[in-house]
Amino acid sequence: MDRKLKNSIFKMLIWAAACVAIGILVFLITVLFYKGFQSISVDFLISESKNFGSEGGVFYQIIGSVLLTLCAAIISFPLSLGFAIYKSEYVKNKYLQNFTDTIIYSLNGIPSIIFGIFGLILFVNFFNTGVSWFVGGIILAIMILPTVILSSYQSINSIPNSYRENALSLGLTKWQVIKTVIFPRAISGGFTGLLLGLARAIGETAPIMFIATAFSGVTFPNGLFEPVSSLPTHILSLAQQATNPDALENAWGSSLVLILLVFSFSISAFVRRLQYSKLKY
Known about the structure:
single chain
């Protein structure tokens, strides 16, 4: 077969696969928006759910999801920045670098349900915390650590070595170089990674289902070790009542609210990355 013909066929197959994948995604999003907008109203967003979620709104589910992701962000961001700076500036041994890379990528590949089981065994059972949104935030923070670390590390590595050398030649100490040259860049890239991580975390069900959330009867928590309701677990509960038309309608509305929250994080990360790509040294 002619080489040009092979290349043409290969390109056609690639384009066909891409079009099928994009078409499926567009179809799913279109159906979700069409069904969801029929269920959403201002009252739906500001009222609490009733009758196991089949009636009422998703106010406390939104509060719970935001609370979990905010907790995950507060815990994961400083830890990720510190680890990325340490790995970039202090870990010079090749074998130790490979070891840390293996740990990060392995952690990134662990199924989310494993994080939930880990939290259930360690915190809920061993430390006897009970079902707690704070524990859920810790587990989500651990889950998104690799994303934030890698983004911060790549940002630090993009800094030319001449900047470090020039700063040291001016008499700055290692810590001063990190504080004035490395740290600002690490924050810029780390924040992008954090947004991407939160876009994943806010839609997770498995890690928080048994350690942080309750399916019904939960309002605003009064302490660290109390459960919350979240959009993913709320949708799961409604899906189990799919034969009930009211529950199904609320499930569509809840799904649209969740996907809009995910989109908000993803779009923010995309905009942040565009701004970051324009930065030049």
